[in-house]
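pinned: reference chain
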Amino acid sequence: MAARLPRRPPPIQELLERCGGLQETQPLLTLLASEAAADRYLHWDELRHRTPPQGLSHEQWWLAEKLSRRPTTLPLRACDGQAFWFSQPPVLLQGLHQIDRQAGASVVAPQAVTTRSTRARYLLSSLMEEAITSSQMEGAATTRDVAKAMIRSRRPPRDRSERMILNNFLTMQRIRELRTQPLTPQLVLELHRLVSEGTLDEPAEAGRLRLPGKEVVVDDAYGTVFHVPPPAEELPGRLEELCRFANGETPKVFIHPVVRAIALHFWLAYDHPFCDGNGRTARALFYWAMLHQGYGLFAFISISSVINRARGQYERSFLLSESDDNDLTYFLLAQVKVIQQAIASLDAYLERKATEVGTLQERLEGMEGLNHRQLALLRHALRHSGFRYSVLSHQNSHGVSHQTARSDLQKLAARGLLVAGKDGRREIFRVPEDLAQRLKS
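pinned: its C-alpha coordinates
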Protein backbone atom coordinates (compact mmCIF):
# COMPACT_ATOMS: atom_id res chain seq x y z
CA MET A 1 0.00 0.00 0.00
CA ALA A 2 1.13 3.52 -0.76
CA ALA A 3 -1.16 5.12 1.84
CA ARG A 4 0.04 6.17 5.29
CA LEU A 5 -1.62 5.15 8.54
CA PRO A 6 -4.14 7.82 9.62
CA ARG A 7 -4.06 9.30 13.12
CA ARG A 8 -6.56 7.46 15.28
CA PRO A 9 -9.24 9.66 16.92
CA PRO A 10 -9.19 10.26 20.67
CA PRO A 11 -11.56 7.93 22.59
CA ILE A 12 -15.10 9.28 22.79
CA GLN A 13 -15.50 8.44 26.49
CA GLU A 14 -12.38 10.42 27.26
CA LEU A 15 -13.68 13.42 25.29
CA LEU A 16 -17.06 13.24 27.03
CA GLU A 17 -15.35 13.42 30.42
CA ARG A 18 -13.30 16.41 29.32
CA CYS A 19 -16.37 18.22 27.94
CA GLY A 20 -18.61 17.60 30.97
CA GLY A 21 -20.73 14.70 29.74
CA LEU A 22 -23.68 14.44 27.36
CA GLN A 23 -25.72 17.19 29.01
CA GLU A 24 -22.96 19.74 28.54
CA THR A 25 -22.30 18.49 25.00
CA GLN A 26 -25.84 18.98 23.69
CA PRO A 27 -25.22 22.66 22.77
CA LEU A 28 -22.32 21.47 20.61
CA LEU A 29 -24.71 19.33 18.56
CA THR A 30 -27.04 22.28 18.05
CA LEU A 31 -24.12 24.47 16.99
CA LEU A 32 -22.78 21.81 14.63
CA ALA A 33 -26.16 21.40 12.95
CA SER A 34 -26.00 25.03 11.84
CA GLU A 35 -22.38 24.73 10.74
CA ALA A 36 -22.54 21.31 9.05
CA ALA A 37 -21.49 21.05 5.42
CA ALA A 38 -23.48 18.65 3.26
CA ASP A 39 -20.51 17.77 1.07
CA ARG A 40 -18.06 16.28 3.54
CA TYR A 41 -17.64 13.58 6.20
CA LEU A 42 -14.43 14.28 8.06
CA HIS A 43 -12.15 11.79 9.76
CA TRP A 44 -10.19 12.99 12.80
CA ASP A 45 -7.01 12.82 10.72
CA GLU A 46 -8.47 15.57 8.47
CA LEU A 47 -10.54 17.49 10.99
CA ARG A 48 -7.59 18.18 13.31
CA HIS A 49 -5.93 20.25 10.55
CA ARG A 50 -8.98 22.47 9.94
CA THR A 51 -10.23 25.55 11.78
CA PRO A 52 -13.06 24.58 14.19
CA PRO A 53 -16.40 26.41 13.91
CA GLN A 54 -16.96 29.44 16.15
CA GLY A 55 -13.92 28.95 18.35
CA LEU A 56 -14.54 25.35 19.43
CA SER A 57 -11.53 23.20 20.21
CA HIS A 58 -10.72 20.37 17.80
CA GLU A 59 -11.70 17.87 20.50
CA GLN A 60 -15.10 19.53 21.01
CA TRP A 61 -15.70 19.68 17.27
CA TRP A 62 -14.80 16.01 16.83
CA LEU A 63 -17.02 14.98 19.75
CA ALA A 64 -19.97 16.87 18.26
CA GLU A 65 -19.33 15.25 14.87
CA LYS A 66 -19.22 11.76 16.36
CA LEU A 67 -22.35 12.21 18.46
CA SER A 68 -24.30 13.47 15.45
CA ARG A 69 -23.63 10.29 13.45
CA ARG A 70 -26.47 7.75 13.55
CA PRO A 71 -25.11 4.24 13.06
CA THR A 72 -26.65 1.39 11.08
CA THR A 73 -24.94 -1.78 12.27
CA LEU A 74 -23.66 -4.36 9.80
CA PRO A 75 -23.11 -8.10 10.41
CA LEU A 76 -19.43 -7.67 9.53
CA ARG A 77 -17.33 -7.78 12.69
CA ALA A 78 -13.76 -6.66 13.19
CA CYS A 79 -11.12 -8.98 14.55
CA ASP A 80 -11.85 -7.73 18.08
CA GLY A 81 -15.53 -8.64 17.74
CA GLN A 82 -16.82 -5.08 17.36
CA ALA A 83 -19.35 -4.54 14.55
CA PHE A 84 -18.77 -2.36 11.50
CA TRP A 85 -21.43 0.28 10.93
CA PHE A 86 -22.20 3.19 8.66
CA SER A 87 -23.89 6.55 8.87
CA GLN A 88 -25.95 8.23 6.16
CA PRO A 89 -24.76 11.83 5.80
CA PRO A 90 -26.36 13.97 3.07
CA VAL A 91 -23.32 13.58 0.81
CA LEU A 92 -23.79 9.78 0.81
CA LEU A 93 -27.54 9.93 0.21
CA GLN A 94 -27.01 12.38 -2.63
CA GLY A 95 -24.42 10.12 -4.25
CA LEU A 96 -26.65 7.05 -3.99
CA HIS A 97 -29.54 8.99 -5.49
CA GLN A 98 -27.42 10.06 -8.45
CA ILE A 99 -26.28 6.47 -9.07
CA ASP A 100 -29.90 5.29 -9.01
CA ARG A 101 -30.88 8.00 -11.49
CA GLN A 102 -28.00 7.20 -13.85
CA ALA A 103 -27.67 3.41 -13.58
CA GLY A 104 -30.52 2.04 -11.47
CA ALA A 105 -32.69 -0.93 -12.35
CA SER A 106 -35.45 1.32 -13.72
CA VAL A 107 -33.12 3.43 -15.88
CA VAL A 108 -33.41 2.98 -19.63
CA ALA A 109 -29.93 1.99 -20.83
CA PRO A 110 -28.30 4.02 -23.61
CA GLN A 111 -29.25 2.88 -27.09
CA ALA A 112 -25.62 1.98 -27.82
CA VAL A 113 -25.68 -0.78 -25.18
CA THR A 114 -29.13 -2.10 -26.08
CA THR A 115 -28.82 -2.18 -29.86
CA ARG A 116 -27.78 -5.67 -30.89
CA SER A 117 -25.27 -4.44 -33.46
CA THR A 118 -23.25 -2.45 -30.91
CA ARG A 119 -23.98 -4.11 -27.54
CA ALA A 120 -21.53 -7.00 -28.03
CA ARG A 121 -18.72 -4.62 -29.02
CA TYR A 122 -19.20 -2.28 -26.05
CA LEU A 123 -19.56 -5.21 -23.66
CA LEU A 124 -16.32 -6.74 -24.90
CA SER A 125 -14.55 -3.39 -24.56
CA SER A 126 -15.80 -2.97 -20.98
CA LEU A 127 -14.86 -6.49 -19.93
CA MET A 128 -11.37 -6.05 -21.36
CA GLU A 129 -10.93 -2.67 -19.63
CA GLU A 130 -11.92 -4.07 -16.23
CA ALA A 131 -9.83 -7.21 -16.68
CA ILE A 132 -6.71 -5.26 -17.62
CA THR A 133 -6.87 -2.51 -14.98
CA SER A 134 -7.92 -4.85 -12.17
CA SER A 135 -4.90 -7.02 -13.00
CA GLN A 136 -2.57 -4.02 -13.28
CA MET A 137 -3.60 -3.01 -9.76
CA GLU A 138 -2.27 -6.39 -8.59
CA GLY A 139 1.03 -6.11 -10.47
CA ALA A 140 0.33 -7.33 -14.00
CA ALA A 141 2.82 -5.76 -16.42
CA THR A 142 1.43 -6.03 -19.93
CA THR A 143 0.48 -3.26 -22.36
CA ARG A 144 -3.18 -2.70 -23.08
CA ASP A 145 -2.81 -3.31 -26.81
CA VAL A 146 -1.04 -6.63 -26.26
CA ALA A 147 -3.62 -7.71 -23.69
CA LYS A 148 -6.55 -6.78 -25.93
CA ALA A 149 -5.02 -8.55 -28.92
CA MET A 150 -4.57 -11.68 -26.78
CA ILE A 151 -8.24 -11.68 -25.73
CA ARG A 152 -9.58 -10.90 -29.21
CA SER A 153 -7.53 -13.60 -30.91
CA ARG A 154 -7.92 -16.11 -28.03
CA ARG A 155 -4.17 -16.52 -27.96
CA PRO A 156 -2.95 -18.47 -24.91
CA PRO A 157 -1.29 -16.21 -22.29
CA ARG A 158 2.50 -16.12 -22.49
CA ASP A 159 3.28 -15.18 -18.86
CA ARG A 160 1.78 -14.63 -15.42
CA SER A 161 0.65 -11.07 -16.20
CA GLU A 162 -1.26 -12.13 -19.29
CA ARG A 163 -2.74 -15.06 -17.36
CA MET A 164 -4.01 -12.66 -14.67
CA ILE A 165 -5.71 -10.53 -17.30
CA LEU A 166 -7.27 -13.48 -19.11
CA ASN A 167 -8.47 -14.89 -15.77
CA ASN A 168 -10.13 -11.59 -14.90
CA PHE A 169 -11.79 -11.44 -18.31
CA LEU A 170 -13.20 -14.95 -17.94
CA THR A 171 -14.32 -14.15 -14.39
CA MET A 172 -16.24 -11.07 -15.53
CA GLN A 173 -17.95 -13.19 -18.18
CA ARG A 174 -18.81 -15.80 -15.55
CA ILE A 175 -20.28 -13.16 -13.22
CA ARG A 176 -22.78 -12.18 -15.91
CA GLU A 177 -23.87 -15.84 -16.08
CA LEU A 178 -24.20 -16.07 -12.29
CA ARG A 179 -25.96 -12.77 -11.68
CA THR A 180 -29.35 -14.39 -10.97
CA GLN A 181 -27.97 -16.97 -8.53
CA PRO A 182 -27.61 -16.42 -4.78
CA LEU A 183 -24.09 -16.13 -3.44
CA THR A 184 -22.70 -19.22 -1.71
CA PRO A 185 -19.28 -20.04 -0.24
CA GLN A 186 -18.77 -22.45 -3.14
CA LEU A 187 -19.45 -19.68 -5.66
CA VAL A 188 -16.98 -17.36 -3.91
CA LEU A 189 -14.37 -20.10 -4.07
CA GLU A 190 -15.16 -20.64 -7.76
CA LEU A 191 -14.64 -16.93 -8.48
CA HIS A 192 -11.33 -16.96 -6.64
CA ARG A 193 -10.23 -20.02 -8.59
CA LEU A 194 -11.10 -18.26 -11.83
CA VAL A 195 -9.13 -15.09 -11.01
CA SER A 196 -6.08 -16.85 -9.56
CA GLU A 197 -5.60 -20.15 -11.40
CA GLY A 198 -2.16 -20.38 -12.96
CA THR A 199 -0.91 -17.20 -11.21
CA LEU A 200 -0.06 -18.46 -7.70
CA ASP A 201 3.25 -19.73 -6.36
CA GLU A 202 1.32 -22.62 -4.81
CA PRO A 203 -1.30 -23.80 -7.37
CA ALA A 204 -3.34 -25.66 -4.73
CA GLU A 205 -4.28 -22.32 -3.11
CA ALA A 206 -6.53 -21.37 -6.05
CA GLY A 207 -10.13 -21.57 -4.86
CA ARG A 208 -9.13 -22.47 -1.29
CA LEU A 209 -9.41 -20.46 1.93
CA ARG A 210 -6.26 -19.70 3.87
CA LEU A 211 -5.26 -22.68 5.99
CA PRO A 212 -4.23 -22.43 9.66
CA GLY A 213 -0.58 -21.42 9.72
CA LYS A 214 -1.03 -19.37 6.51
CA GLU A 215 -1.71 -16.09 8.29
CA VAL A 216 -1.05 -12.95 6.24
CA VAL A 217 -0.80 -9.21 6.82
CA VAL A 218 -1.33 -6.25 4.52
CA ASP A 219 1.84 -4.20 4.59
CA ASP A 220 4.15 -2.14 2.40
CA ALA A 221 7.68 -2.60 1.13
CA TYR A 222 9.06 -0.98 4.30
CA GLY A 223 7.31 -3.36 6.69
CA THR A 224 4.55 -1.01 7.85
CA VAL A 225 1.56 -3.20 8.71
CA PHE A 226 -1.76 -1.67 7.61
CA HIS A 227 -4.11 -4.54 8.35
CA VAL A 228 -4.08 -7.88 10.16
CA PRO A 229 -6.94 -10.05 8.79
CA PRO A 230 -8.93 -12.49 10.94
CA PRO A 231 -7.25 -15.84 11.71
CA ALA A 232 -7.75 -18.68 9.27
CA GLU A 233 -9.86 -20.68 11.74
CA GLU A 234 -12.62 -18.04 11.54
CA LEU A 235 -12.80 -17.83 7.75
CA PRO A 236 -15.40 -20.55 6.97
CA GLY A 237 -17.90 -19.02 9.39
CA ARG A 238 -17.18 -15.48 8.22
CA LEU A 239 -17.65 -16.53 4.59
CA GLU A 240 -21.05 -18.02 5.44
CA GLU A 241 -22.04 -14.74 7.10
CA LEU A 242 -20.75 -12.75 4.11
CA CYS A 243 -23.00 -14.77 1.79
CA ARG A 244 -26.05 -14.25 4.01
CA PHE A 245 -25.41 -10.51 3.88
CA ALA A 246 -24.87 -10.59 0.11
CA ASN A 247 -28.20 -12.35 -0.39
CA GLY A 248 -30.09 -9.79 1.69
CA GLU A 249 -30.79 -12.14 4.61
CA THR A 250 -29.02 -9.84 7.07
CA PRO A 251 -29.43 -7.33 8.63
CA LYS A 252 -33.18 -7.04 9.16
CA VAL A 253 -33.22 -3.39 8.09
CA PHE A 254 -33.18 -1.90 4.60
CA ILE A 255 -29.70 -1.46 3.16
CA HIS A 256 -29.43 0.46 -0.09
CA PRO A 257 -28.33 -1.99 -2.84
CA VAL A 258 -25.25 0.07 -3.74
CA VAL A 259 -24.26 0.23 -0.06
CA ARG A 260 -24.66 -3.54 0.15
CA ALA A 261 -22.45 -4.07 -2.93
CA ILE A 262 -19.73 -1.73 -1.63
CA ALA A 263 -19.85 -3.27 1.84
CA LEU A 264 -19.45 -6.71 0.25
CA HIS A 265 -16.35 -5.42 -1.56
CA PHE A 266 -14.92 -4.15 1.75
CA TRP A 267 -15.87 -7.31 3.66
CA LEU A 268 -13.98 -9.68 1.37
CA ALA A 269 -10.95 -7.39 1.36
CA TYR A 270 -11.07 -7.06 5.17
CA ASP A 271 -11.30 -10.80 5.79
CA HIS A 272 -8.53 -11.44 3.22
CA PRO A 273 -9.57 -15.11 3.09
CA PHE A 274 -7.12 -16.12 0.37
CA CYS A 275 -3.34 -16.14 0.24
CA ASP A 276 -3.46 -14.00 -2.93
CA GLY A 277 -6.07 -12.55 -5.29
CA ASN A 278 -8.24 -10.96 -2.58
CA GLY A 279 -8.52 -7.57 -4.30
CA ARG A 280 -9.59 -9.07 -7.62
CA THR A 281 -12.11 -11.34 -5.89
CA ALA A 282 -13.51 -8.44 -3.85
CA ARG A 283 -14.10 -6.36 -6.97
CA ALA A 284 -15.66 -9.41 -8.68
CA LEU A 285 -18.13 -9.72 -5.79
CA PHE A 286 -19.00 -6.03 -6.14
CA TYR A 287 -19.92 -6.62 -9.79
CA TRP A 288 -21.93 -9.73 -8.92
CA ALA A 289 -23.88 -7.75 -6.29
CA MET A 290 -24.64 -4.83 -8.63
CA LEU A 291 -25.82 -7.11 -11.45
CA HIS A 292 -27.68 -9.37 -9.01
CA GLN A 293 -29.57 -6.38 -7.64
CA GLY A 294 -30.66 -5.20 -11.08
CA TYR A 295 -28.02 -2.60 -11.99
CA GLY A 296 -27.55 -4.05 -15.47
CA LEU A 297 -25.57 -1.10 -16.79
CA PHE A 298 -22.64 -2.29 -14.65
CA ALA A 299 -21.90 -4.92 -17.26
CA PHE A 300 -20.47 -1.96 -19.21
CA ILE A 301 -18.80 -0.03 -16.36
CA SER A 302 -15.21 -0.41 -15.15
CA ILE A 303 -14.53 0.71 -11.58
CA SER A 304 -10.94 -0.55 -11.56
CA SER A 305 -9.92 1.94 -14.24
CA VAL A 306 -11.08 4.77 -11.92
CA ILE A 307 -9.57 3.22 -8.77
CA ASN A 308 -6.25 2.69 -10.53
CA ARG A 309 -5.95 6.42 -11.26
CA ALA A 310 -6.18 7.23 -7.53
CA ARG A 311 -4.83 4.18 -5.74
CA GLY A 312 -3.83 6.18 -2.68
CA GLN A 313 -7.39 7.36 -2.03
CA TYR A 314 -8.73 3.84 -2.46
CA GLU A 315 -6.25 2.40 0.01
CA ARG A 316 -6.68 5.26 2.47
CA SER A 317 -10.47 4.77 2.57
CA PHE A 318 -9.90 1.26 3.98
CA LEU A 319 -7.62 2.67 6.67
CA LEU A 320 -9.98 5.50 7.63
CA SER A 321 -12.86 3.08 8.17
CA GLU A 322 -10.82 0.65 10.23
CA SER A 323 -9.19 3.37 12.35
CA ASP A 324 -12.39 5.21 13.37
CA ASP A 325 -14.43 2.72 15.39
CA ASN A 326 -15.19 0.58 12.29
CA ASP A 327 -17.09 3.39 10.53
CA LEU A 328 -17.58 2.08 6.99
CA THR A 329 -18.96 5.46 5.82
CA TYR A 330 -15.50 6.59 4.70
CA PHE A 331 -15.15 3.62 2.35
CA LEU A 332 -18.73 3.99 1.14
CA LEU A 333 -18.18 7.64 0.24
CA ALA A 334 -14.93 6.88 -1.58
CA GLN A 335 -16.53 4.09 -3.62
CA VAL A 336 -19.66 6.09 -4.43
CA LYS A 337 -17.34 8.70 -5.91
CA VAL A 338 -15.54 5.97 -7.90
CA ILE A 339 -18.87 4.67 -9.23
CA GLN A 340 -20.00 8.15 -10.24
CA GLN A 341 -16.74 8.72 -12.12
CA ALA A 342 -17.03 5.29 -13.78
CA ILE A 343 -20.57 6.09 -14.97
CA ALA A 344 -19.37 9.46 -16.27
CA SER A 345 -16.53 7.68 -18.10
CA LEU A 346 -19.02 5.34 -19.77
CA ASP A 347 -21.20 8.28 -20.81
CA ALA A 348 -18.19 10.10 -22.26
CA TYR A 349 -17.02 6.92 -24.00
CA LEU A 350 -20.40 6.35 -25.62
CA GLU A 351 -20.61 9.99 -26.70
CA ARG A 352 -17.09 9.86 -28.14
CA LYS A 353 -17.86 6.66 -30.01
CA ALA A 354 -21.05 8.16 -31.41
CA THR A 355 -19.06 11.14 -32.67
CA GLU A 356 -16.43 8.86 -34.21
CA VAL A 357 -19.12 6.81 -35.93
CA GLY A 358 -20.63 10.00 -37.32
CA THR A 359 -17.28 11.21 -38.61
CA LEU A 360 -16.51 7.83 -40.11
CA GLN A 361 -19.91 7.63 -41.75
CA GLU A 362 -19.33 11.05 -43.28
CA ARG A 363 -16.03 9.81 -44.72
CA LEU A 364 -17.77 6.75 -46.07
CA GLU A 365 -20.57 8.64 -47.80
CA GLY A 366 -21.01 7.24 -51.24
CA MET A 367 -19.52 3.84 -50.29
CA GLU A 368 -22.35 1.37 -50.39
CA GLY A 369 -22.56 -2.07 -48.85
CA LEU A 370 -20.59 -1.58 -45.61
CA ASN A 371 -22.22 -3.23 -42.60
CA HIS A 372 -21.92 -2.21 -38.93
CA ARG A 373 -19.10 -4.73 -38.30
CA GLN A 374 -17.00 -3.32 -41.12
CA LEU A 375 -17.67 0.22 -39.88
CA ALA A 376 -16.55 -0.78 -36.38
CA LEU A 377 -13.38 -2.35 -37.74
CA LEU A 378 -12.59 0.72 -39.83
CA ARG A 379 -13.11 2.98 -36.82
CA HIS A 380 -10.62 0.87 -34.87
CA ALA A 381 -8.28 0.71 -37.85
CA LEU A 382 -8.15 4.51 -38.15
CA ARG A 383 -6.58 4.63 -34.65
CA HIS A 384 -4.25 1.64 -35.12
CA SER A 385 -2.17 2.00 -38.24
CA GLY A 386 -0.49 -1.28 -39.19
CA PHE A 387 -2.80 -3.37 -36.99
CA ARG A 388 -3.42 -6.92 -38.20
CA TYR A 389 -6.84 -8.58 -38.08
CA SER A 390 -7.49 -12.28 -38.34
CA VAL A 391 -10.74 -13.98 -39.26
CA LEU A 392 -10.89 -15.40 -35.71
CA SER A 393 -10.40 -12.05 -33.97
CA HIS A 394 -13.10 -10.41 -36.13
CA GLN A 395 -15.40 -13.38 -35.49
CA ASN A 396 -14.92 -13.18 -31.70
CA SER A 397 -15.36 -9.41 -31.59
CA HIS A 398 -18.79 -9.55 -33.23
CA GLY A 399 -20.13 -13.01 -32.47
CA VAL A 400 -20.60 -14.07 -36.11
CA SER A 401 -19.73 -17.20 -38.05
CA HIS A 402 -16.28 -17.84 -39.49
CA GLN A 403 -17.58 -17.42 -43.04
CA THR A 404 -19.30 -14.10 -42.25
CA ALA A 405 -16.14 -12.74 -40.59
CA ARG A 406 -13.96 -13.84 -43.52
CA SER A 407 -16.36 -12.29 -46.00
CA ASP A 408 -16.31 -8.96 -44.10
CA LEU A 409 -12.52 -8.81 -44.23
CA GLN A 410 -12.18 -9.93 -47.84
CA LYS A 411 -14.65 -7.28 -49.02
CA LEU A 412 -12.71 -4.56 -47.18
CA ALA A 413 -9.49 -5.83 -48.76
CA ALA A 414 -11.14 -5.80 -52.19
CA ARG A 415 -11.98 -2.13 -51.65
CA GLY A 416 -8.36 -1.37 -50.75
CA LEU A 417 -9.19 -0.58 -47.11
CA LEU A 418 -7.23 -3.58 -45.76
CA VAL A 419 -4.20 -5.40 -47.12
CA ALA A 420 -4.60 -9.19 -47.27
CA GLY A 421 -1.65 -11.42 -46.44
CA LYS A 422 -0.50 -14.58 -44.68
CA ASP A 423 1.05 -15.34 -41.29
CA GLY A 424 2.14 -18.90 -41.83
CA ARG A 425 -1.06 -20.65 -42.83
CA ARG A 426 -3.26 -18.07 -41.16
CA GLU A 427 -4.98 -15.43 -43.26
CA ILE A 428 -4.42 -11.90 -41.92
CA PHE A 429 -5.61 -8.44 -42.97
CA ARG A 430 -3.37 -5.44 -42.22
CA VAL A 431 -4.37 -1.78 -41.85
CA PRO A 432 -2.60 0.28 -44.54
CA GLU A 433 -0.58 3.27 -43.32
CA ASP A 434 -2.64 5.65 -45.50
CA LEU A 435 -6.10 4.35 -44.54
CA ALA A 436 -7.45 7.83 -43.77
CA GLN A 437 -6.44 9.07 -47.21
CA ARG A 438 -7.94 6.00 -48.85
CA LEU A 439 -11.24 6.64 -47.05
CA LYS A 440 -11.26 10.28 -48.13
CA SER A 441 -10.64 9.33 -51.72
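why pinned: The radius of gyration is 25 Å. The chain has a mean pLDDT of 89.
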